[in-house]
């Protein structure tokens, strides 16, 4: 419009538009191969192997034809980026693919390419091993134990592997009575988890330890509201006769023996029963105050 300096403009219309950003679509097999092609990673003869390796090593899972990273995949990715970022990047890999092509074409000797690769890799491995050292010694052969990543998360493994295959949990279990982790259950056996403290701080541990060695990190625990078990005097444990208490878990409220973990008896409770127990508990609390 034709306007003059200092001219007052009149607002004629205000229009609000709502918009939001969308995350990029997850890769499926076709889109991943297309991305590899565009970045110069791999060759037509290796694309199928790349995809099958990701699945076989449990780095990703397929859901509705889309790839989702597993906990193991996330751990491996974080570790590689932390210690080997110089070689685990798109530019480096694409350049390596080009050098492999020159070997196939007879323009370069493979020894030269491998030497340039292995010397820096050896130095990076030494630095990674230094940082992963934790002061724990293998009780079998005396070698240092190092943090490794497996299907179910991190653990301590002998640095003398494969000559020595000794492993142990990353977190040493305290002998003190552990605190029950309300609403947290073991991914391996489904049992309730407890809070223990080890070399690296507090963590969730399976209540069936040592029969089950499932563990998981504690994340944002400070933000979660803790539910205090409510005594239910009228309900007795069918196994040991002790008083039952009302607890809450991932599937809602349930009754559990007050002698946990010595007794792990549980019992289902209806919604109406829960409401009565909660109301009764709240009324008693008000009366006490």
Explain what you see:
With 289 residues, the protein is α+β, with helices and mostly antiparallel strands. It has four domains: 26-69, no CATH class; 71-170, no CATH class; 179-223, no CATH class; 230-288, Bacterial Topoisomerase I, domain 1, CATH 3.30.65. The chain contains six helices and 14 strands. It has helices spanning 29-39, 47-56, 71-83, 90-104, 110-132, 271-288; strands spanning 60-63, 66-69, 133-137, 144-150, 153-158, 167-169, 179-185, 192-198, 201-206, 215-217, 230-236, 243-249, 252-257, 266-267. It has a four-stranded antiparallel β-sheet with strand order 3-4-5-6. Strands 7-8-9-10 form a four-stranded antiparallel β-sheet, with no helix packed on it. Strands 11-12-13-14 form a four-stranded antiparallel β-sheet. The protein is flat.
The stretches of 5 or more residues where confidence is low (pLDDT under 50) are 221-225
What is the radius of gyration computed over CA atoms, rounded to a whole number of angstroms? 29 Å
- Residues in helix, %: 25-40%
Shape: flat
Multimerization state: single chain
Number of helices: 6
SSE string:
HHEEHHHEEEEEEEEEEEEH
Describe the structure in brief:
This protein has 289 residues and is of the alpha+beta class.
List key phrases describing it.
289 residues, alpha+beta, four-stranded antiparallel sheet, 14 strands
Blueprint (SSEs and pairs):
Layout: H1 29-39, H2 47-56, E1 60-63, E2 66-69, H3 71-83, H4 90-104, H5 110-132, E3 133-137, E4 144-150, E5 153-158, E6 167-169, E7 179-185, E8 192-198, E9 201-206, E10 215-217, E11 230-236, E12 243-249, E13 252-257, E14 266-267, H6 271-288
Antiparallel strand pairs: 1-2, 3-4, 4-5, 5-6, 7-8, 8-9, 9-10, 11-12, 12-13, 13-14
């Amino acid at each position: 419009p034709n306007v003059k300096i200092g001219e007052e403009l009149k607002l004629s219309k205000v229009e609000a538009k709502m918009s939001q950003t969308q995350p990029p679509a997850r890769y499926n097999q076709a889109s991943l191969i297309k991305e590899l092609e565009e970045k110069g990673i791999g060759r037509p003869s290796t694309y199928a192997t790349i995809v099958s390796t990701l699945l076989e090593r449990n780095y990703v899972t397929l859901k509705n034809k889309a790839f989702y990273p597993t906990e193991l995949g996330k751990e491996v990715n974080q570790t590689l980026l932390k210690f080997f970022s110089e070689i685990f990047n798109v530019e480096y890999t694409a350049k390596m693919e080009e050098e492999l092509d020159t070997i196939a074409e007879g323009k370069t000797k493979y020894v030269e390419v491998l030497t340039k690769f292995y010397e820096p890799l050896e130095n990076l491995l030494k630095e990674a091993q230094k940082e992963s050292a934790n002061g724990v010694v293998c009780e079998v052969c005396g070698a240092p134990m190092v943090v490794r990543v497996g299907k179910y998360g991190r653990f301590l493994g002998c640095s003398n592997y494969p000559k020595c295959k000794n492993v142990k949990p990353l977190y040493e279990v305290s002998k003190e009575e552990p605190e029950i982790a309300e609403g947290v259950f073991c991914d391996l056996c489904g049992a309730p988890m407890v809070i223990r403290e080890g070399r690296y701080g507090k963590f969730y541990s399976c209540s069936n330890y040592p029969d089950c060695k499932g563990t998981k990190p504690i994340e944002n625990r400070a933000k979660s509201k803790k539910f205090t078990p409510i005594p239910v005097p009228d309900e007795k444990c069918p196994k040991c006769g002790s008083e039952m208490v009302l607890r809450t878990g991932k599937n809602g409220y349930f009754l559990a023996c007050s002698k946990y973990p010595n007794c792990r008896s549980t019992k289902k409770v209806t919604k109406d029963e829960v409401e009565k127990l909660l109301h009764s508990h709240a009324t008693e609390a008000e009366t006490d105050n």
